[in-house]
Amino acid sequence: MNMKTRRGFFIAACLLPGLALFILFKVYPTIQIFQKSLYLWTGVGDTPKFIGLKNFVDMFNDEAFLLALRNTGFLMLIVPVLSLLIALINASLLTQTKLKERGIYRTVFFFPSILSFVVIAILWSFIYHPTMGFVNSGLELLGLGDWALSWLGDQRTVLWALAITLIWQATGYYMVMYMAGIDGISPDLYEAAGLDGATRIQQFFHITIPMLWEIIRVTIIFSINGVLTISFVIVSIMTGGGPDRHSEVVMTYLYSQAFTNSNFGYAMAIGVFIFIVSLLLALISNKLTERGSH
Amino acid sequence: MSANPTAIQTRRKAPAVIGKLVLRVFLIVQTLIVVYPLLWNILASFKSNAEVMESPWSLPSVLNFDNYVRAFTTAKIGDYMINSVLVVVMSMALLLLTAVPTAYVLGRMKFRGRSFLTNFYMAGLFIGGVYIIVPLFIMMNDMNMLDNRFWLSAVYATGSLPFSVFLLTGFMKSIPHDYEEAAMIDGCGYFGTLFRIITPMARPGIITLIVFSFFDFWNEYVLAMTFITSDAKKTIPIGLSNLMSIQQYATDWGSLFAGLVIVLVPTIVVYALLQKKLTQGMMLGGVKG
C-alpha cells in the first residue's frame, strides 16, 4: 500500500506541473475561442453579449476579410508547391550526383530556416527597396532599368514578392528532410533502373518520388501550416498589409481586428474559422495524396 | 576501325562533364541567392548612410564601427539581447522541468488515464500560438501576467510542450526496462531513478529538444510583441522591428544593419556548433513544423 501511494504520488508530481501549464495557456484559451466566437465583445472592459453565429455571417460580408482570405489562399497554394518542388529537386541532385562539396550546399541551403523571421523580413524589405534594393539596381545593371518596380508597393507584385521570401525561407528545411529520406532508399533500386536504361529523370519520377511519398505528404501539411504562421510576421514587417490591403493575410487581419479595433469576439470567430479550415486542408491533402489515388 | 577507343571514351565523357558543370552552376546560383542577402547585410553594417543609399553592390570605403557603437548606445540592442537570453533560459528551464517527467511517466509507467493524457497532449500539436492569442491576452491581462518576462517564458514553454512530450516519449520508450529494475533493487527511489538513471540515458533526445527550442524561443515575435509592453523588457526580435519602423523616418540605416548582424552572430555560432545535431534531430523526431 505504501509502495502504491508513493508510486501514485510520483506520477502526480511528474504530470501536474506540465498539465497546469498546458491547461492554463493552451486548453483554456482554446475553449475560449470556440465559446467567445459566438459573442459580441468589444474591449477588455466590455461584457460579452451572446449573438449566435452572427460573427461568422459577418465574416462573409466583410470585403476586407474576403480579400485577406484570397491572399492567404494564394500564398498557401504557391509557396508549398514551389518550395517543396525546389526542395525535392535539390535533394535529389545533391544525393544522386555525389558532388564532393555537397555538404557545403546542404549547410548553406538549410541556414535560412533557422533565421529569425524578423531578420528575414527586414533583409527582404531592403532587397525589394525601390531605390537602394538590389533587385532594382540589378535590373539597371542588366540594362532593364525600365522593369524596376516598387515591388512591395505595387498591388500586382506584392504577393509574389512575399511568396518568394517565404520560399527562400522554407526550401532548405524540406530539402534536408528529403535528403535524409533519399539516403534511406536502397541504392540497388537506382542501380537496377540504371541497368534497365532508365534515365535520371525517369528514376526521379519512378523511384525517388514514390519512395519519398510518405515524407512528401507530411511536408505538404507542414508547409501549408507554416505559411499561415510565417506570413503573419513577414506581412506585418514588410508591408503592414499594404498597398491598400492587397497583401493582408487572415492572421494579420485577425490581429488588427483584436488589438487595433478591439473586436475580440469577431477576431476569435476568425480564429475558429482559420483553425477549422486548416484542419480540413490537412484532411483533404491527406485524402488526396493517399497511396491508392496516386 | 579508325575510331580509336579513347576518342569514344572522351565523347562519352563529355556530356557527363558538361552535366556536372551545369549542375554546379545551378547550385552555385542558388548558394548566391541564399548567401547574398546576409553578406550584403554584413557589408552594409560597416557603411555610412550615404554609402548604403548609393548602391547595394559597392564595398564600404572604410570599416565604419560607428554603426555598432550606435546599435548598442542609442538603439539599446544590448538590453534587448539580455532580455532575450533571460527569456530563452527561463523558457528552456520550464520546458525541461515539465516535459522530461511528463514524457517519462507517459512513456514508461502504466496507470489509468495514460492513453487519454497522451492523446490530450497530441491534440495540442494542432493549436498554434496565433489562433489563441486573443483569449490568452485577455486572460493574462485579468491575471496581471502581461509585461512580465517570466509569464512570457511560461507561454513559450507551453507552446513547445506538446511536441517535446511527443519527441521525448519516443525516446523514453526505447530505453530497456532493466535499468529501472536494477535501480529499484539498489534502493534508488522513483525520483532518483528518473533524474540519475533515465535522464542521462535520454540525453540525445533532450539535446535535440534544446537545439530546436533554442531557435524557437530566440526568434519568437508575435507573442513577445503582444504580451510585453514596456521597452525595457522587450526581446531582440521586437527591438529590431521597432528599430526598422523608426529608421524609416530617421534614416539611420547603419545601426539597423549593425543590429541585425549582432542578432545573426549567436545564431550562426549555434548553427555552426550544432549543425549535425540539428539535421539529425529532424529525422529523429520525425518532423517538425
UniProtKB/TrEMBL annotation, chain A:
Pfam families listed in its UniProt record: BPD_transp_1 (PF00528)
Topology versus the membrane: Multi-pass membrane protein
Subcellular location: Cell membrane
Annotated ABC transmembrane type-1 domain residues: 69-285
UniProt superkingdom: Bacteria
Transmembrane spans: 74-95, 107-127, 157-176, 215-238, 264-284
Keywords associated with the record: Cell membrane, Membrane, Transmembrane, Transmembrane helix, Transport
Family annotation (InterPro entries): ABC_transporter_permease, MetI-like, MetI-like_sf
Family: Belongs to the binding-protein-dependent transport system permease family.
Record protein name field: Carbohydrate ABC transporter permease
TrEMBL record, chain B:
Residue ranges the record marks as coiled coil: none
Highest taxon of source: Bacteria
Ranges for domain ABC transmembrane type-1: 81-274
Its membrane topology: Multi-pass membrane protein
Keywords: Cell membrane, Membrane, Transmembrane, Transmembrane helix, Transport
Annotated transmembrane regions: 21-43, 80-106, 118-138, 150-172, 193-215, 253-274
Pfam family of the protein (one): BPD_transp_1
Subcellular location(s) per record: Cell membrane
Membership in a protein family: Belongs to the binding-protein-dependent transport system permease family.
UniProt-recorded name of the protein: Carbohydrate ABC transporter permease
